[in-house]
Amino acid sequence: MSYQALYRKFRPDAFEDVKGQAHIVTTLMNQIKADRIGHAYLFCGTRGTGKTTIAKLFAKAVNCENPKEDKSPCLVCDTCKAIGAAASMNVIEIDAASNNGVDNIREIVEEVSYSPTSGKYKVYIIDEVHMLSTGAFNALLKTLEEPPGYVIFILATTEVHKIPITILSRCQRYDFKRITVDTIASRLYELMEIEGIEVEEAAIRYIAKMADGSMRDALSLLDQCIAFHFGKTLTYDLVLDVLGAIDASVYSEFVRFIANQEITKTILKLEEIVMQGKELTQFVADFTWYLRNLLLVSASEDARDTIDVSTENYERLVEESKLLKQSAIIRYIRIFAELSSQIRYSQSKRILIEMTLIKLCKPQMEVGQDSLIERIRLLEDKLEQGFVPMGQADQGKSEVKNQQLQTRQRPVTPTIQAVPQDIQEIIRKWAGVIASLDAPMKVYLKTAKLSLHQDKNLLIGLEDGPASDYFLDSEENRDKLKQHLEQSIGKEVTLHFKAFRQMDEFEQSHVDLSKLILMEIEEE
Ligand SMILES: [Zn+2]
Fold it and tell me: Is the pTM of this model over 0.85?
């Protein structure tokens, strides 16, 4: 079965099928009913909001031989058919983007003087009218001043500020609104039902949101997704996949890494996204939107209705809003908004994003006396604990230059030799061991950090809460993990568990062995 694009297949043929522009449709229908049709209309609004669709529908409606009760065209009379097939002499469509000269308009002006061959009205639809040259506007103006009674001009534009005031003052102006996510989503549903294609609600809503108020964009995005996975249920994951977008849970991870100032993790996560071939401009836009939602959740008790996310994602936002101060979120949004204006045309999107992420992680990178004091305090703390991560002070620069930054962040002390061989082995196998565990243990260990206890035993640092309770309250669980680790290295181990209210508290008081050892491997 061949597939016909939704946008072509479902162009509205009746006024009631036009979505999201009720104010305009009603006015136009009333004008036809009352036989008070204007002679010059200006349709303004962003792309894909229905300007040309309504213009064509209107052209059919005023010429139809047997209009329906609501004045929608009948679609079966000769006039309707001819206009539908773009074969009517009465409806003339001009794309001003490619016909913007004075001669193009003069041709029209001459034609205007001949009355229609059939039907009542000659309708001129000039799309992208702001592209006309000054001469062309002047030529058009003369006709607009005294048009014959059978002529209707419909001028459509996305950039109304470029239209001369002399033209504006002779037109009835209609402002097309961006179409809401709800309206777009319900239209997409409707069409999917007609087409007999199964879809997930989250999938449709994501597309509707991506379309940013444009029904045409929504339909073409939906087309892409369906064409890619024809005959399958259209799931949220498939949509993300086709559109090169990223699941919201990934943004949640970023926020948590940034809140904990974990530069390495944020950069590695970004690398993952780059490797998956995701669209980075979209990443920035979606992440900014995620932060906006986070701010709303943080600023108001009942933000549930104002943000359009699943319950699961909402709960994550609530959790994250507790990790961050509002001023910090506002700072993130400011920095990210700056990024989105730079990134669109940049050749080095990845590096720009990396710089931004580092800036977010390190407030002290922004100049100012407070930040200097803060930096000195952090250094003093670390010196007291006996180690300084090398290159910390100029981290920002080196990370930007070198995407393989992890090789540079090597702790000076303690040396790797001081770590018992068994423990080194566990740390190298740690990721694999976790992966082989069942939930929930697997989940609770995801954020765990490893260090030394009394220089010879493995210390497992856990996030205070469900993760720490899981192990500290149950000998059985502790034993299970112990057995697993012993199996993986074939030796006996002694484990020590400790809870940390914030994982960066761990970093301040303990050496993160996985960083130490895994970086050593990179180095080799
Ligand atoms: Zn008709």
Answer: no
